[in-house]
Task: structure prediction
Amino acid sequence: MKYALLIYSQLNADEYGAVLDATRQADDTDGPWVKYTRAARDAGVLVGAEQLTHDDTATSLRHQGGDRMVTDGPYMETKEHLLGFYLFDVDDLDTALDWAKRMPTHPGQTIEVRAALSGLPWQRALAD
Amino acid sequence: MAAGPGGLAGSTRLERAFREEWGAVVATLARRLGDLQAAEDAAAEAFAAASVTWARDGVPPNPGGWLTVTAWRKAVDAHRAAGARWTSIDPQVLGSVAADARTAPDIAETDMTETLGDDRLGLIFACCHPALAEDIRVALTLRFVAGLTTREIAAAFVVPEATLAQRLVRAKRKIRESGIRFTVPSAPGRLAERLQSVRAVVYLVFNEGFASSSGSSLIRDDLCDEAIWLGRLLHRLMPGDAESAGLLALMLLHASRRAARLAADGRPVPLAEQDRSAWDSALIAEGTAVLDEALVLRSPGAYQLQAAIAALHAAAESFEATDWPQIALLYRALARVDPSPVVEVNRAVAVGMADGPLAGLAVLAPVLASGALAEYGPLHAAHGFLLEKAGDSERARGAWKRATETLDNAAVREELLRRYVEPLTERNPGPGVENGDAAP
Result:
């Protein structure tokens, strides 16, 4: 069963930028997130993972009436921002929650765990 | 919402047995189908079929097996009729279910009774999963493990039936879609965490009945009975778990005082003044025996400590002759395992009885100063009790008054008001309401 572990943070765009700069400069090849990602890969449960730009720079496409309108900004302005995700393939919710608990998160961050659906017609196109 | 058999109020032994079968059938099907809704629907159909067939042909030799196999067949039929509605069901499992039900019901029966214990536990663990909101864990457990109807649960918790039904539908969908399994967690750390949640749900049901603030007393008593029934089931299925035994012992020992807690006219009676001959000696004996079983396992915890405190009360000839120094020590141990200001309030009363009111007031002082429990009635009741005992009637009266303003149980509030605030009595009262002493 696949689970998306969505990482939400309260950092604003400037704070997030500073964190990213520091992370790039430190270039720590054995930091907590490196270890975590390696552990997930070695356990054979990691399907994918991405870190996103801040939603401050998001572009949204709204389908309204017959039109598709491009707007500057995220779908919804919120205090918590989706900044990244891991995609795991594990047996059950408990195992997914275990991986969520192992994440080296900071206070203020929230991990939303969402199970992925399977067996839908469009998903057959992925296997083609 | 499909109705389970039996009723909450005044359920007979037969109804109880019937409901136990309900839980067993749901457990077996849920485990195999991975879907509580499908299990519930099939179980309801099987029970409906039983009421017709058994009335006509008599009760079969193995009623439980009959119900399970019938429910199984209904589930297979429903699946065929609905196409692939249950996307979460492994087609292989369903194939084997169908084969069993069609060709070899006897084999299916043996197989099912062998794993029944695991099925029951698996269902309990799913219903009490920490990923579900606490109140819905309670409702799921009462509905599917204890076999209460949605109407009965709604009445017990004073919520509209439609609201509860809707929340149950959502919870069943979450269990199915989010991958909550009907199995006993195998990793020791996870098992411990999940068991804690199961015990908390059972104790919540008990306290809702025991220290209630709303609903009729008849329903309240029944909730206590349901909780004890669940506690017995958990203890039977996990005999090696000391805290589950401790929880059962705690509930039995508290329930033993039930008849003495209310006067004939419905007024609450403090522990100090309860007629101890009205305490249920059978429940005390059972509770003490279960506690002894737990202590032998040498894995202490909060439920066992509270049960030990309740056992000391149960063994005492009178309020004054209670082993207060030992109770004070147990509260100290409890404060270490599970620190909370509520435990400190209870410890203060015990210390006050063991070492004098001034020692008790010293324990209470930091709790009062912190303001954490400013709206907690039993704190002020305990304060009043200790001040009164120390001879400071004037300030005691103020504390009692504060207690009446903060207690949310109307009957207890009125009783406090009648006794301590309106006419200031000269006698030395017990530590207010029993709830304050009983339930951290």
Chain B touches chain A at residues 84, 87, 129, 131, 177-181, 185, 190, 194 (CB under 8 Å). Residues 1-11, 98-110, 423-440 of chain B have pLDDT under 50 and may be disordered. The CA atoms of residues 404 and 416 of chain B lie 6 Å apart.
